[in-house]
User: What shape does this take?
Amino acid sequence: MPTIGLIGAGHIGSQIARLAVASGYDVVVSNSREPDTLAALVDELGPHARAATPVDAARTGDFVVVTIPLKNYRNVPVEPLAGKIVIDTNNYYPQRDGHIPELDNESTTTAELLQAHLPASKVVKAFNHIYAAELTTDGQPAGTPNRRALAIAGDDPQAKEAVTRLLDRFGFDTVDAGPLKEGWRFQRDTPGYGPRRTADALRRDLAAAKRYADMGKP
Assistant: This one.
C-alpha cells in the first residue's frame, strides 16, 4: 500500500490520517512544530502512523496532502515533492490568511498558487469542501446507493485517476471538476461547499457555481 504523507495535522489533516489508517495505508504526519507534539495523534492511530517533520513527510509519502493555513503555502518543501502527487485541501479565508491580491481578483485559485510553488509536482485539489468530521463518518462502499461524492480538480490526468482511486478506497465517489483553474467551483460559499451531495447533485452544484464578484462577496 502507498504511504500518505501529511503536511499539516489540524482538523482536516488528522481526519485524513484516521481515514487513511482505517483504509489500510501507512501515514506520516507533520505540523509546523516538533514531531513530539503529535504524540497523542500517533498513539491513537497506532502502528501504521508516525510523526515527522514536513520535509520527512514530503520525502516519505507516495501521496502528500498539504492541509495548512493557505497563508503558509510557501513553507511547503519543494524539492522532496518533485514528481509526486500533492493533494491540496486549502481554502482561502482573508480574515485568517490576509488578503492575497490574485485570489481577491479571482485571477487564480488556491491550488494554482500551490502548483506554481511546486512546479515539478502534480497538484490535485480535493477534500476542501467537506466538513472535517464527516470524512470519517460519510464514506461507504463502492456501489452503495446515494454514495457521497467529492470533487477534484487537477491538470495531470494520471494524478487525478490516482486520487480518484484513493477517494474510492476512502468511501467516496469522485466528480472531476476539470483543471486546477476550475477549482473555484467548489471553494467556500459555492453550492457544493459543505453539504452532502451525490455525484449527480454535486455536478449540478459545480455547474451552478458563481464567482465571488458575481455573488457580491469579498
About this structure: The radius of gyration is 16 Å.
